[in-house]
Amino acid sequence: FYGYKIRAKSAELNNWLEEVVLVIQSQRNSYHAHQSAQRKAEILQQAAQLGQEAPVVLLLHELSEYEGDWTPFLSYPTLFVLSYCQEWFLGKRLHDNEASIIHHYAFSEDPSSFGYPDPAAGWAISMSLLQRLAERIQYERMKSDFTIDLKHEIAFYIWEGGNGPKLTAVPEFCTQQRDYCATTFTTYLPNCGDAVNKEDIFVAVKTCQKFHSERVPVVKATWDKDAAFLEYYSDVTDPSIPTIHLGVPNTERGHCGKTFAILRRFLSDSVPKADWLLIVDDDTLISLPRLRKLLRCYDPREAVSLGERYGYGLMQSGYSYTTGGGGMVLSRVAVSRLVSSGCSCYSDDAPDDMVLGMCLSSVGVPITHSPLFHQARPDDYSEDLLSMQQPISFHKHWNTDPVAVYTHWLQDTQPRDEL
């Protein structure tokens, strides 16, 4: 993760530093691989300065070639091995303030009663617990084929319906700088230099006739003005917006046919040539200035697929995908590789984000995750978690004022031409 730091400060910890296994949740993209290698070097340097035997430091993306290795259900990221006898699950505790759709409304009667770890602070499990989980995962089928919010699903799996340990909150796992902290965290939005130009991003908004008067005005009232190149794709041509009909009939769900038509159009001479394609729904709220800043960290000459990463069937050699509601960002190279592969929708109403993930996996393009993209509303996430972010996107207008959500969470007070 960006800005993650670990400090071995206490004498007790220093005495058994060689018994620590650190797993950095790295990713295959060149930017993230470089960042994780730097973090590993810093940790080893700290150990040398303490005069201690170096801990084992592993980079998650190097543990296997499988794209699904980002989920600890396949390779558990262990920070500190604190005990060989007792089962410990430690970290900074997050909880829901209200029942959340991304957590399948678990603990709806008292959402705050269940805690899950803040990944920015790091988390730890004891060797005894790790060994039991490793054995359990071999014979027990996961209750869901989907991996959506990993930190909550990890805690829920470890808790095991009350038969396993709950997360123990440990103050030394921190996201803010304090003297007693073993870990600190800087930011999810790194500073890689000046933001990319507006003209580097082509924005595709998926809509349909029944939402022209309900959702499109919200886009125009909030983030539309921050785009240099933007087109609305609908099932009808409406010059008042304007919208473009791609010849694909509207579907109630999935929209795969429409999305693949957008990919082909992006590569054609019908639209301005740009390095990046952003595909969003008409009820997606997004900060384009923040996205432009984030994209400076990535090389558009690489095949990049960026957004909020979900997984399907990862325990059975499945695939990762960028969830569509939070926004799907693709480099021109990735779009070209995908389209030229011949991979396509099995039906127009197939889930476009999942089909894209399956196709990208088949051509060797990894899904790069950023926690700044959100498939759901702000109310569906922990307040503590969002307080550490400069979010890039949220999704859904249900039971919210979308303009107010955009103003509070995504609109920067700094003038747009400076972002």
From TrEMBL:
It is a single-pass membrane protein; Single-pass type II membrane protein. InterPro entries: Fringe-like_glycosylTrfase (IPR003378). One of its GO terms (cellular component) is membrane. Keywords: Glycosyltransferase, Membrane, Signal-anchor, Transferase, Transmembrane, Transmembrane helix. GO terms for molecular function: glycosyltransferase activity. It comes from the Eukaryota. Belongs to the glycosyltransferase 31 family. This is Beta 3-glucosyltransferase b. It comes from Myripristis murdjan (pinecone soldierfish). The gene is B3GLCT.
